[in-house]
Amino acid sequence: MRDLRAVTTHVSVSELLATTAAERPDGPLAARVALSPEYRVTAERVDTWLDRGQITTAAVSFSRDNSAAPLSLMSSDVEVQGRRWPFLISADKARLLVKDGHTMVLSCPELWEENLRRMSLETVEAMVASLNTMIFLTPPGTSGFHQHRDRDDYVVVVQTEGTKIWRLYDAPPHGWTEDDDTRPAPESLSAEVKLEVGDTLVIPRGWGHAASADPSTLSIHLSFGINYVSPAHMLRVALINTLRNMRESATLEETQSAYLEILDEFENSDADALVKEFISAQYRTGDVRLRDIAGR
User: Helical H runs in 101-230?
Assistant: First the structure.
């Protein structure tokens, strides 16, 4: 079994992420990190988000042994113009699902947590790569997902409450792509590591893994998906969005003209500056506030 004992301590989560992005390790790595208050996600903090109604169905899912909970088990209906819409999370239902052994998965917490958004902006600008942040809250002795492979260039795990046991399997087979949903074979287990608060684990793209909470504790960890963004990827995104927004009756000439205009803009732009703007856009907020508008 591979030895994954932590031999490095990082001064901050941002430094851990930037180091991973810069060094591009070719195998799983365990380390320690100094947790700042912004990244210290606890059950109490998640309770606060639930009680304030900050979490919607778009930002949360529940899974137990690789089976997703249906929307009806987590949401509370809201009536709008005579129709009922199940888009708000019921705090009581969410807690019952966790009590029943479901892992709660929160996506993009920086959307409602200002401190996390600020830290994410600083981090992506430092490492010049995109960041996909998630929070996994797992009940004692349970596992939300079977062994699998992630498509992110790197997944960086930071344990913030409790203890979780991680199992690492084989490296991705030659030619593996994100479209291949083949799971690692159980006999390909290569390492196990127990993460406690402040422990971290870096998992390269496609490396097989699975995890379960220690039987004695509820586990919470942050998961950061690091992805390198190329100008070619940005060009594809720009083309897709432009073509999607064109009217259905657009002519071939109009479509070709739109394509050439975007291509010309990319060819005459600073590629590094475009990438930096692209990865940081979702974390930026404008300077205008409603109180300022009201005072005009």
Answer: 114-127
1/175: higher pLDDT: 175
**Local confidence band at 1 (pLDDT 50, 70, 90 cut-offs):** low
Neighbours of 232 (CB within 10 A): 10
Catalogue the long-range contacts made by 117-122 (C-beta closer than 8 Å, 24 or more residues apart).
117/283, 117/285, 118/38, 118/283, 119/13, 119/14, 119/36, 119/38, 119/39, 120/283, 121/280, 121/283, 121/284, 122/14
- Element (H or E) spanning 95, and its range? helix 91-99
Question: In sequence order, what are the beta bridge partners of 63?
Answer: 68, 103
**What is the DSSP-derived secondary structure letter of residue 260?**
H
The CA distance from 270 to 259, in Å, is 19
Q: Which two tokens stand for residue 276?
A: 């930096």
Looking at the domain assignment, is residue 28 inside a domain?
Answer: yes
Q: Binning pLDDT at 50, 70 and 90, where does residue 290 land?
A: low
Look up the pTM and report it. 0.88
What Cα–Cα distance (Å) separates residue 51 from each residue in 14, 39, 56, 109, 182?
29, 20, 12, 15, 39
Same-domain status, 221 and 239? no
Range(s) of the domain holding residue 203: 9-45+100-227
Could you give the angle at which helices 252-267 and 231-245 cross, rounded to 10 degrees?
A: 150
Question: Residue 281's pLDDT is what?
Answer: 87
Same domain flag for 191 and 209: yes
